[in-house]
Amino acid sequence: MIIDSKLKGDEGENFVNEIAYKSFFKYWCYPGPKYENGDKKEICDLLIVFNDICIIFSVKNYEFKGNHIRYFNNTIEKAVRQLNGACKTLFKKDKVEIKHPDRDVEEFPRNQIKKIFKIIINLGEGVDFYDITRTQNNSDFITIFDKETFHTIAEELDTVPDFIDYLEKRELLFKNKTVQVISPNLSRDLNENDHKYLNENIENSIKIIGTEKDLLAYFFTNVRSFPNVITDNSEKDYMVINIEDAWKIFKNSPNAIKKEFADFSSYFVDELVMNEILNRKEPLMEEIAKELLSLNRLQRRAVGISFDEFFNDIRNYPEGMHRRRFMEHGNLALVFFNFFPKWGTEALSKMFDLIFETFAFYYQYKHQTFILIGVSSDPYFTFQMHKNYGQFDVEDEEIIKANIKELGWFTDYNEQIKNVDEFPQ
Question: What is the reported pTM?
Answer without folding.
Answer: 0.93
